[in-house]
Amino acid sequence: MARFIRNKKAKGTAAENELVHKFWENNWVCVRVAGSGSTQFPAPDLLASRGDRRIMMEVKIVNSHKKYFSEQEIKDLEYFSERFGAESWVGICFEGRQWFFLPTAELQKTSAGQSFVADLVEMKRKGFGFEEMIALI
Amino acid sequence: MARFIRNKKAKGTAAENELVHKFWENNWVCVRVAGSGSTQFPAPDLLASRGDRRIMMEVKIVNSHKKYFSEQEIKDLEYFSERFGAESWVGICFEGRQWFFLPTAELQKTSAGQSFVADLVEMKRKGFGFEEMIALI
Lengths: 137, 137
Fold this sequence. Notes:
Two copies of one chain form a homodimer. By secondary structure, chain A is α+β, with helices and mostly antiparallel strands. Chain A has a single domain, classed as Trna Endonuclease, Chain: A, domain 1 (3-Layer(aba) Sandwich), CATH 3.40.1350. Chain A is 37% helix and 31% strand. Chain A is built from four helices and eight strands; from the N terminus they run αββββαββββαα. Chain A has helices at residues 2-25, 71-84, 120-126, 130-135, and strands spanning 29-32, 46-49, 54-61, 66-70, 87-94, 98-103, 108-109, 115-119. Chain A has a five-stranded mixed beta sheet with strand order 1-2-3-5-6, sandwiched between helices. In chain A, strand 7 (108-109) and strand 8 form a beta hairpin. The longest helix of chain A has 24 residues, at 2-25. In chain A, 36% of the residues are buried. Chain A binds chain B through residues 20, 24, 28-36, 39, 41-44, 47, 49-52, 54, 79-80, 82-85, and chain B through 20, 24, 28-36, 39, 41-44, 47, 49-52, 54, 79-80, 82-85.
């Protein structure tokens, strides 16, 4: 279990670092947040900006076709982003290293309505690629 | 040496966490940056916002009356802040737990002109306390 968590955490960090590099390569500035997910205060995983736009993002890596988000997780992200004058996004790396990005406002509620879900089929249809996301005006 | 560095790092993290708490207590949002000072990309130690203001900060804890900053360190902070639409500040905790804050634009150059210096006497005169800093408009 400890090893599983360590590996999962390492994969999450690697995925975040991959995005940090992509933002800088595209002339944005970007940082990873220390202890996001483990501090007592809500915090996104990444903060990025190019001056006129600011993006706060939860980054997930999943080995399946679906990723669930709790309502609190999305609420926290949106609260933080709003206080920062920023857009709130989720970035998900599905199996096969397929990255998709979506503003939290476009996430689907689950049928029970208790949480949000991003599934790969849906994300292929309405999600954004990295370049698309940063090209928005 | 390893122990010295670990202790110094732990003290730095504790000082940063103290400020994170202060910002949240005052209805700002704030995060610590992961790996600031050790990543290949320039990054401040703290990012904070209350919507209309954003502050990016280098946080230092010193056991003396002076703290030096290299020109590059300040340039990097100012570049990052400008790309984020934020103010750039330094926050220094001098011996005796005296905190002072200053916008980087108000830092003094050293007499040799190669770096910047914040000294306790000067900071007592023109530095800001935490509450003063966050009350600025």
